[in-house]
Each structure stands twice: as structure tokens, then as C-alpha cells.
């Protein structure tokens, strides 16, 4: 039997405990991130739904009520057709602006705030001397 110069091997190497701890911490981070992503996706999906509803509402308003309102403004106030059209268009823009502000409010918070903070704390604790 040839001597390789290596001493007797221990059952596990000294860093295996650290690797297990690191793996456990990363597993916790992944689980936490998955929960937070799920919550953020619901919020983002809700904002997307509001944007789609804003677009549909705008099209319905432009298509359905425009003709009747323009005719009524022209008849009631003796406005020119272009003036009646401009007033109706400004009303549509106001409604659209309100819906867009509501969607923006849902998108205001950053994504994965808690997970990023947890990762920063963990990395800081691992890198401290």
C-alpha cells in the first residue's frame, strides 16, 4: 500500500457546518421571497387590471356617449360642432387621468422591499469582521 502523504480523513470537513447553515439561510430567504413575490404580483396584476379598465372605459365613453353629448351641447348652447367635440374630449381626458392616478398609486411601492432588506442584513452579518 503506497503512502500518499495525506493524514487520516475526518468524516466531514470543517466548513460543512457553515455550508449547511448558509444553505438553510438561503432556503429561508427563497421561501420569504416567494411569499413576497406572490403578494407583489397580486398588486401588480391589480394595477394592470385597472389600466385595462381605464382603456375600456375610455373607449366606451368615446364611442357611446360622445355622439349624444356633442349633439346636446350643439343644440342647447348653439356651439359649433368643434367646440362641442372639444368639451367632450376634455371630459374624457379627466376621467382617464383619474384612473391612471389610481393605477399609479397601486404601483408606488417598490417590489420585494422586505426580501431585499433581509438579504442586505444577512450579507452584512456574514461579511462583518
Q: What topology does this entry show?
A:
Blueprint: H1 16-77, H2 81-107, H3 113-127
Spatial extent as radius of gyration? 31 Å
Strand content: under 5%
* Number of beta-strand segments: 0
Uncertain spans: none
How many separate domains? 1
Structural class: mainly alpha
The main sheet comes to: none
**Intertermini distance:** 45 Å
Shape: rod-shaped
Overall residue-averaged pLDDT value: 83
Q: H/E order of the elements?
A: HHH
Report on the architecture of this protein.
With 129 residues, the chain is an all-alpha fold. It has one domain (31-127). Helices cover 81% and strands 0% of the residues. The protein has helices spanning 16-77, 81-107, 113-127. The longest helix has 62 residues, at 16-77.
Characteristic key phrases:
129 residues, 81% helix, mainly alpha
Question: Gist?
Answer:
This protein is mostly helical and 129 residues long. Helices cover 81% and strands 0% of the residues.
Amino acid at each position: 500500500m503506497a503512502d500518499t502523504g495525506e493524514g487520516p480523513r475526518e468524516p466531514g470537513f470543517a466548513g460543512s457546518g457553515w455550508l449547511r447553515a448558509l444553505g438553510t439561510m438561503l432556503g429561508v430567504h427563497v421561501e420569504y421571497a416567494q411569499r413576497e413575490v406572490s403578494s407583489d404580483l397580486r398588486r401588480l396584476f391589480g394595477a394592470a387590471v385597472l389600466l385595462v379598465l381605464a382603456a375600456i372605459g375610455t373607449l366606451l365613453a368615446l364611442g357611446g356617449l360622445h355622439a349624444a353629448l356633442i349633439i346636446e351641447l350643439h343644440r342647447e348652447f348653439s356651439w359649433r360642432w368643434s367646440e362641442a367635440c372639444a368639451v367632450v374630449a376634455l371630459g374624457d381626458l379627466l376621467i382617464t387621468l383619474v384612473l391612471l392616478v389610481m393605477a399609479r398609486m397601486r404601483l408606488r411601492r417598490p417590489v420585494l422591499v422586505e426580501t431585499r432588506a433581509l438579504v442586505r442584513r444577512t450579507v452584512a452579518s456574514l461579511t462583518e469582521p
